[in-house]
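#data-curation
PF: Archiving a pair of folding outputs for the training set. Convention for this channel: one message per protein, sequence first, structure tokens after, nothing in between. First:
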Amino acid sequence: MVLDGFDLVVLGAIIPTLLKSKDLGFDPVGATFAATISLVGVGLGALFIAPLSDKFGRRRLLVACVAWFSVFTIAVVIAPNVAVFSAFRLLAGLGLGACLPVALAFMNDHSPARSRARATTRTMTGYHVGAVVTSLLALALVPNWRAMFIVGGLAGLILVPFLWLRLPESGAHAAVPPSAAEGATDDGGAHAPSSASSGGKSLGFRALLRKPYPLAAVGIALASFMGLLLVYGLNTWLPTLMASAGYSMGSSLTLLFVLNIGAVAGLVLAGRLADRHGAKPVVLLWFGLSAVFLGFLSIRLQNELLLDAAVFVTGVFVFSSQVLVYAWVSQLFPRHLTGTALGFSAGVGRVGAILGPAVTGALVAANAAYPWGFYLFAAAALVAVAALVFVPRAVAQAAPSREDV
């Protein structure tokens, strides 16, 4: 997850440098294309590769995807132009896209029901720790942007043997202990057995179309779309937005660091509250407060301490809102569909992740990013609230179909 956090921030950290130096021929249009095509790869990986973990097991898929991502991240440094740079980012994204849903499904395979939300948020702290470390790395290395990709790729290659040797298998290729695989959810519903004991039940996206899953799948996917629009839009363009507002570039990079520190703090708090009160009321509150604080950031603040505090609190709510959506998926869907449901949620969400940087990039190109970028983000948070209101707190298992029998 630290690698995913690296990928989240790295373009936002180097885009101002690439635009200023025009290295590889970068301009606002090229930067927007690179950011967008990177997320296309991540979305495709989440949609079409992550669900394979329900069928083939989590461990081998996770190891292969980390290795793939790392190789093509290092390859970025030899790119001669924007097109090749973007192609390598697309390929790296294919591997990376599967990592988040597979890692979360892996954790839920091995977590007791009473602490699944905390397991999800604890795992996702790695995402934002990676973002924080990458922000600090950017402060030390930028304008040497190639060094950023070398460090990120090497970190992944070093991680691969540890993942292979230390992770137990889960999902379709290993039995999960009954105490971990079954139990009541926090909303009182029965959790289905893991994929190890799915006994021929339908797997894949087609299973999500059977009652009672469609309403939950659509609502969660729409909220994930909006949540990742916020996460990627802010992390890709926050330094540029703040520079447009008149803040110095050093201050803008520091605010990216502060934003992700807030995200880590928010994850710790959100997981505890979701396990205690259920994911639905907490995620609705979190998205609502995200809208409030994103709107507040549209105000030009002269006091640096107040600005840091506002960005920190925004990070607390914005990023953990999206993680709570993932935690809710683990409560709503049976274990043999967890990888598929998380992949669907993350994959559709990546479309929002594509749209966020693309639309914000268009605002930057039109010299209208500040304050309209923050208005756009606040509106997205409100749409997520509307989508989740209609999702039930829990759903029952679908009845077996003929093909399951």
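PF: Second:
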Amino acid sequence: MSILPNLPAPDVPQGPWALFLDIDGTLLEHAAHPDAVVVNDALRMLLARLETQLDGALAFITGRSIAAVDHLFQPLRLRAAGLYGLEHRLARDGPVEAAGEPADIAALAGEIEAELASADVYIERKGPILAIHTRAAPHLLQRATQLVEQALERLPAGYRVLAGNAGVELMPLEAAKGAAIRRFMAEPAFKERCPVFLGDDTSDENGFETVNEMNGISIRIKPQGQTAARHKLADVGEVLAWLDTLCRGRFRATVQP
């Protein structure tokens, strides 16, 4: 793990590279409710230009469902791993490998909704993932964490609890951003490229570790505590400025013939 004050800003990637992007807290500022965020046309244009310059080697790696991502960024339908890699769209505008909601997770969601009956807590049902957002009610984070940890004892094996900056999630063990990045790196558009991954939360640490193993560039946004990332950017504004610099052609993004 890195000691945060010594983390440098990211270098400009050298040679052909691939870009993997978390969304909330990385490209967009967090909001109390996930549906409250807004994507402007400038960000859509920036992503479209980057995707073109990278010959398609750009993908979202997010805890959101791909359907939610498409709603945010419409009309763009870029490559994406949703639900921490439980859903995939491997080609732009291509089909989505979706994930359904198991009955036991649906029942648990109902129980927690009844327990945390507060307008300030948002319980998000994302197929096999249950997310409890407490950004507007930080005093309820501990109780929300207790509820999902207790649920592990009666759920089938294969689930884990992931605590975040402003909420907690219950998810299958196979939901991991690092695994999603590895899957994309095996695709023709991404092969033989240097992976660059930007994220802001504990759920991104697995992705940072994977990118480091590939000798890529791992970047944590507004880091708090220790991180596996080797670089940092202070906030969403710095992320967008850095990506814009890359988009202006100060790199060699494509694989040379």
